[in-house]
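Reopening this one. Same input as before:
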Amino acid sequence: MFFNKKVTNNSMKDCTILIQGRINSECLNLWIKNYKKHNVVLSVWEDEDLSQFKIPKHWVVVVNQYPLVRFRREANLDYQIITTLKGLSKIKTYYVIKVRADEYWSNLEIVYDRLKQNPNKIVSGSMYFRNWNLYKFHCSDKLLAGTWNNIFSMFESTLHNLEIKLWDTTIPESQLGLGFVMAMEKDFEVTHGKLEQEISAYKFSPQGSSKRIAQTMDFIVKACMDIATTDFRIYSKQEPDWVGVKGKFKRLKVMVDDCIKELNFEDVKPIDDKPYMKKWFDIIDINELKPYIATRNHNDLGRIWYRDNFDHYEENCLTDINQICTTKDSELSKNNL
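Same output, byte for byte:
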């Protein structure tokens, strides 16, 4: 594996590389070696030791303090939002390519060229830009490129959605995808109100309701036991508390009715995210950017590293925004036709 491509002529004068998050030493040294002449903002945390790196003098370094309160811990989405927005505040170029400090990509000029062809869209890396119907609004947050306004809008809108608890999904990439779509649809005054209604409806689809229904039914069972043992006083010789029983059963009826409504899915049409994603996103095949270093935390295998030839077919990822599907799951493929 060779990472000795030194970029001597910076053709990306109007673009800044935003490197954010926790540092991997090998990756940061490669960024320094191969992109030292580029516009770069490095946005990291206060406990990083930067003295071991020969950071170019014209690079801008942003050191962030950890938040006192975490607001979205899943895959450190809140951390990514903080370091990205703080980094963006120091950028003055028209275009931005956001990457992670624990990863490295070669040939970012390819991303830049694609970006200039589609300046209204965000160019997302193909690594974990999931197949349609796997997850709603699922882009890839490993590499995001766009105009400064678009990248800022994505993260600012996502932060707003989290603050108002618009959507309860725990998938960071889906939150970011939705955030950008909503920002753009609002700016262009296209179906934003409808979009919010559809998102709200999606929360009451089978995917979003099963856990809530189970919790409600569990509460109802416990409440019935409480009525039997307390209000009916079956373990004592006192008369039942008929007033208490009547009031509790009224409240239980309301809860049961709510469960029935959630189980009645005939009127719920989960949102079709594909038209929105195709409208506002483009995908760059990360294998065009090799050699690279990319990573993820696998539930069973722990930390995994990738250095070339990422298998999109095996990982159910798209390499083109207009693809139908790349999955080997035949049933999922049928759903996308």
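So the earlier flakiness isn't reproducible anymore. For the record, The domain at 15-188+273-335 is CATH 3.90.550 (Spore Coat Polysaccharide Biosynthesis Protein SpsA; Chain A).
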